[in-house]
Fold each of these.
Amino acid sequence: MRIVPCMSIGHSLLGLLESGPRHGYDLKRAFDEKFSHNRPLHYGQVYSTMSRLLKNGLVVVDGTETSGGPERKRYAITDAGVIDVQGWLATPEKPEPYLQSTLYTKVVLALLTGRNAANLLDTQRSEHLRSMRIHTDRKRYGDFADQLICDHALFHLEADLRWLELVAARLDKLSEAVTR
């Protein structure tokens, strides 16, 4: 399983269709296997996304089957869908500067309300270290794709830990700044 970053589910499903036509169930299973970790895609999300892609001409229904159950549509990507995926893949993602971090907001509110921000930072540091251990274990036993996505997560967690240490070292100055 993989971690799902914020991503275009539609583009991901289109990309999965480039290898050949698939049913909605197969698309969900492939998506979950390749991209999802703790947040599997819901069937309703697959089918509503496929309906939108169909309406926009990015997929077609390549066939239907009724083998003893409800009708199953098999979807195939269109040339327009291939071009759309290509454009999405070629467009760089905007780096997230995290200027509106929830953690920063919690630290400032703790200071403003007279709560112990140092305890908040310690608790958060422990949670980051716990998450780093989980990703390190997953990286150790995972395949190459797992290793890469875990490295991505670990680098972000490491940066967050450095920020937590910086805030802890500057907590007195931050306290003065926010209570003025």
Note: Residues 1-6 have pLDDT under 50 and may be disordered.
Amino acid sequence: MADFVGAVDQGTTSTRFMIFDHAGNEVAKHQLEHAQILPRSGWVEHDPVEIWERTDSVMRNALRHGNLSPTDLAAIGITNQRETTVVWDPRNGRPYYNAIVWQDTRTDSIAAALERSGQGDVIRHKAGLPPATYFSGGKIQWILENVDGVREAAERGHAVFGNTDCWVLWNLTGGPDGGIHATDVTNASRTMLMDLETLDWDDELLGFFHIPREMLPTINPSSHREAFGTTRASGPLGAAVPIGGVLGDQQAATVGQVCYAPGEAKNTYGTGNFLVLNTGTEPVRSQHGLLTTVAYQFGDSPAVYALEGSIAVTGSAVQWLRDQMKIISSAAESETLARTVKDNGGMYFVPAFSGLFAPYWRSDARGAIVGLARYNDNGHLARATLEAICYQSRDVVEAMEQDSGVHLDVLKVDGGVTANDLCMQIQADVLGVPVSRPVVAETTALGAACAAGLATGFWQDTDELRTHWQESKRWEPQWSEDQRADGYAGWKQAVERTLNWVKVEVP
């Protein structure tokens, strides 16, 4: 039996291939960034061809770095930036347009029109999502309506849609030469087009967006031995390796953090923050601005659902300090700079660059720095940026507790920002609960590997996976209740200042 499982992690800023052993330890990886295309304010795009080329390269290089061959892999999994939308010609693999990224806000008028018409309530009930620029449905509609010839091509069967999991899978399994056009329930649940009860595309929802059903991929369980096919020998692995699992990135992190029981939760700190709470095999309809989504489905078992709070800008706010404000030269320096001050000095930074996601869902919001005094300096701005990451997470935790009745005893965390010890201490202080980081911090890729390994028998069950999870570090709250309450009150005031900044045109 092969000794390793691989995972493609196709993210917002980069693509990587990671290889894990039976204990869930990383044995090799390679990672490459891709361009962020910003044609105008609020628009964010990626080049799908560049993403596929990066995927090909990182798979080849990870094997080379690990001195491994494809026959050493029992299976591979795929995880991805979820709502990012690709429409391509299946005859030749050429995209009709750049991928429209989940952060993109060009579809705000589509979302507003759905809300005004009352169709938003139908979408909430069936898909578990509010009408928002975040999700794929509006992005597909925009491409069909604004890119010449695409609607006609779709009606002839010459234009298909997929999030980046689907795009990578199709290319890995042959592309124009028999590539598999499929996705999993977690990615499908992020489109506004899938019924959470039936786990299938819904004709009424498709009608709201004027999307031909023939464009859409087959929906499969997240972990399945046959559903996703095998890599082509002519591809980057140079051999036929089973593709055993596909999961959207935040659901993959939920699996990697072994949140398999109702009430278990994790928070992933990446470009944005994504807090996911396992709610079991029945969907919980949010009344407080959260998303009802599919957490995972393994084989023929029932789907497991979750509540999710999605935050658009957290780690990317630190990138903004580096790339736009140029007050730091690396993300790690944000901690050093923030430690030069003892608190935020009364300054709050709300990084609503593309509106506010959960629990507010306000596309009219824009970023604001408030409470400034002449006393404030770069250290206070760095501290306020780290606090913004943590306060936005508290907004979601508050909503999650109201929806589910579950009070967190501990928050499991993962992702790049968790390397920032000060930020994680602030998170524990802001929430008033311990924060726990695992030994394997890259749980997104690990979760995809787990799904693939379960499908192929590399791991027997989730109980076995639990035995491999280990805590690396824990942060205990240090703030008093008064500090916590005062800080959060100031944050809520700052959020109010960001609203009604942009006028959303409704057709």
Note: The two ends are 59 Å apart (CA to CA).
